[in-house]
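Reviewer comment 2.1 asked that we show a complete input and output for one of the modelled complexes. We chose the flavin-adenine dinucleotide case, as it is the one discussed in the main text.
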Amino acid sequence: MKKEKKLKKNKYIIIGNSIAGVSCIEGIREIDKDGEIFVFSDENIFNYSRPLISYYLAGRLKEEQLNFRDENFYIEKNVKLFIKTPVKKINTKEKIVYIDKGNFDFDYLFIGTGGSPIIPQIKGIDKIREGVFTFTKLNDAKNIKNFIEKEKIKEVVVLGGGLIGLKCSEGLIERGISVIIIELSDRILPNTFDYNASMIIENKLKEKGCEIIKRNTIEKVIGKDGIVKEIILKDGRKIKTKILIIGVGVIPETKIIEGTEIIKNKGIIVNEFMQTNLPFIFSGGDVAEGEDLILNKKSVIAIWPVAARMGKIAGYNMVGEGKKYDGMFIMNSIEFFGIPTISFGITNPPLNENYEIIEKIDYEKNFYRKIVIKENKIIGAIYLGKIERVGIISGLIKNKIDVSSFKNLLIDDKFGLLVLPETYRKHIVKGEGIEV
Ligand SMILES: Cc1cc2nc3c(=O)[nH]c(=O)nc-3n(C[C@H](O)[C@H](O)[C@H](O)COP(=O)(O)OP(=O)(O)OC[C@H]3O[C@@H](n4cnc5c(N)ncnc54)[C@H](O)[C@@H]3O)c2cc1C
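Response of the prediction step:
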C-alpha cells in the first residue's frame, strides 16, 4: 500500500457503529487527527457490546452498563455520529453514500455492517406478527424482555443450540424461565465444539432444568390472529408456546453493496490490509471475509476480537499506513453458566486423516482440554473450565510452531512459557532483566 501525501483533509465514512466501526475510528485517529469522520448507525442506541445482551436479558446488567465506549468518545475523537440513520446505497464511482434525507461524499469508506440473523423457512412463520423473535441486537433482547413481562411467560422455545441460541437460553434461565432448545444436530454447539465439550455444556443446561430436543427442527408454526400458539416439530411432536426465539446463526449483512462492483463471497472479500477490490473502500468484522490462517482460505470469523482488530487495521490503512493483519483464525471465547470456554481452529478433525489428538477430561469438574495436531503443528484446541495460558496455545497456532518436542506437556497444568523452545520464547518475551 502506498501512502499518499494529501493537502486537503480526508473525509472518512464509516457504516456501522459497533466494535469494527469504533475500532476503525480509533485506527484513523491514531494517525490522522484532522480528517473528517462521519459514522452512520441504523440502531437507535449509540453503542453496546453485543456479547452482553444475554446478561441484559437475564437482568444482570442494565442498558447503560453495556456501552463499550461512552458518549464522550465521539466528542474526543471529533467524530460526527448519526444514529437511527441507515445508509441506503453506495455510489462507488462518485464516492457518495446515500441516507434517507441526503448524501455524503467520502475519500475513504469503511463497511462494518456486521451480520443479520438467519430466518429459516418454516411453514406459517410469515403469518405471525407477535411472539417470534431473533436474538442478535439489544432491541431484540428488550423486545423479548418486554413480551415476557407483559404476557407473564414461563416457558420459551428456542430454535438453535449454537452460540446465539444458548446465550439467549442462558439469559432466560437466569430469569427463572423454562427453556426448550430445538437443535438439528446430534449435539449442541456442533460448529464450535466436539462431542465431549458439547456434553459438558448440555449437562449443565439440563442441571438448570433446560430441555434439549436434538436431531429435530420446527416444521410449522401455528398461530391465531397472527399470535403464536403452537409449534410442530419434524417428528410430529406439538409444543404449545406463546414465544419462539430463532437463534440459528447470522449471515454477513451485505445488502448495502448490492448493485456495486464490490466483490463478495459470503462476506465482503478483503485483503490483509482490509481493503476490498476497490482500494478506497475497506471492510471488517462480521460482514467481511479475510484470510483464515488455519484453513488457508478466506472465511468470515464472526467474533468480537477479530472484528476489533480488522476495524483497527482498516482504520490505519485508510490513512495509508500499510499495516497487515497477520493472524486471524476461527476462535470462540464464551462463558456458559460460569464455565469459561475457548475453542480455536479445527476441533473436530475427520477420523480418516493424519491428525493427532491430545486430551484430558473431567466431567465432574466441567473440565476439558483438547489439542489437535497435524504435521507437528497445532491446528485446533478446546479448553473448558480452566482457560489460563490458552493465549500461549493461540500464539503457537499463529506462529505455526513445531510442538513435537513438548506436545505431551501442552494440556498439563504446569504448561507455560518455560516449556517452549528457547528461540520461540525469545521471540515472544523480550525486555531488560527478562531471562528466557
Ligand atoms: C448474542 C450474541 C453473543 C455473542 N457473544 C460473543 C462472545 O461471547 N464472544 C465473541 O467474541 N463474540 C460474540 N458474539 C459475536 C460478536 O458480537 C460479533 O462478532 C461482533 O459484534 C461483530 O462486530 P461488527 O462491528 O462487525 O458488527 P455488529 O456488532 O453486528 O455491528 C454492525 C452494526 O452495523 C449496523 N448496520 C448494518 N447495516 C447498516 C446500514 N446500512 N447503515 C447503518 N448501520 C448499519 C448494525 O445495525 C449494527 O449496529 C456474539 C454475538 C451475539 C449476537
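The mean pLDDT is 92. We note this here for comparison with the apo prediction described in Section 3.2.
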